[in-house]
Amino acid sequence: MVSRGAASTVGATLAVLSMMLVPGAAGATPRKLFTVSFSGTVAIADSEAQERTPPSGCVGTSTDTFRLNGSARITPIAARLPLIEHGEWSYFVFPADVSGLAPVMTQEAAGTWSVEPDSGGGQESCVFKPSTASAPCPLRKTPAQLAKSSFSLFPDPQLTSRFLVYDDDHNIIEGSCEPLYEAAAPQVLQAEFLTSLHVSTVKRLGKGRSVTIRETIAVPHSLNEPGTKIAASETLTFALTVKRVR
């Protein structure tokens, strides 16, 4: 399956900033505090078609198609958080619970083979046998580990006025579909989802005021190489509320 979460400049920037931050000096003005409530679902729908070469002495076409589907629930975890400000960047790091993901992989083999003329190939070896199979993809992280998931609201590097929401690890849910599928394991919550929430809206919130957005954001991915075609999408449907509490 396609790796949806390529190395992120946002993640790299956040990692650097977290190393540079230092505690506030004694007697400093208390920072504004907020709560971030993040809830919804994230779904993946991937397909990969691989061309299969007929046996020696046979001609024809055949394809193995792998499909991966799954979804997870995201529920908020109560926490009072500062809006971290460092230079031009203003962002939140907040917790949320991820649960309920049970991805399933299916494989479908389809095609037609025939004996190559004058090849002397055996008729039996050139009979293509269609097949289907399915298998669960067990998660490598335990439910307890997923319950400690960390997310970020970070300004988009190109559109710095709007927040991206994403998983800090960019590989929060990873599974294995072996032996049905032995290539890269499926991964969920790799994408960076650009929201409609503006940084300035959050900064203007008075104590006790809040802002809520409800959105569905789909991030498609595709890859076409000789013998392989991949189409993938990751869709986040969510409600996000930021409230100033101090």
Question: Explain this structure to me?
Answer:
- By secondary structure, the protein is mainly beta.
- It has a domain at 31-46 and 70-103 and 138-244.
- Helix content is 9%, strand content 52%.
- It contains three helices and 14 strands.
- The strands form two sheets. Strands 1, 2, 3, 4, 5, 6, 7, 8, 9, 12, 13 and 14 form a twelve-stranded antiparallel beta sheet that branches.
- A hairpin with a 2-residue loop joins strand 4 (84-86) and strand 5.
- The protein is elongated.
- The model is unreliable at 3-7 and 19-28 (pLDDT under 50).
Distance between the termini: 45 Å
Low-confidence stretches: 3-7, 19-28
Main beta sheet: 12 strands, antiparallel
Percentage of β-strand residues: over 45%
Percent helix, as a range, is under 10%
Question: What's the tally of helices?
Answer: 3
Shape: elongated
What layout of secondary structure does this protein have?
Elements: H1 9-20, E1 33-51, E2 58-76, E3 81-82, E4 84-86, E5 89-99, E6 104-115, E7 131-136, H2 143-146, E8 149-155, E9 162-167, E10 173-174, E11 187-188, E12 193-198, H3 199-203, E13 210-225, E14 228-244
